[in-house]
Amino acid sequence: MSIDVRLRGILNRISAACEKAGRSESEVVLIAVSKTKTAEDVQQAVDAGQLVFGENKLQEGQDKIPVLSDELEWHYIGGLQRNKVRKVLGLFHVIHSIDSLKLARYTNNVAADMGLKPSVLLQVNIGEEVSKGGFNVEELRLSFGDLLDLSHVNIVGLMCIPPAVIESEDARVWFRKVAQLRDLLEKEYDVSLPHLSMGMSGDFETAIQEGATYVRVGTSIFGSR
Ligand SMILES: *Cc1c(COP(=O)(O)O)cnc(C)c1O
Question: Rounded to two decimals, what is the model's pTM?
Answer without folding.
Answer: 0.98
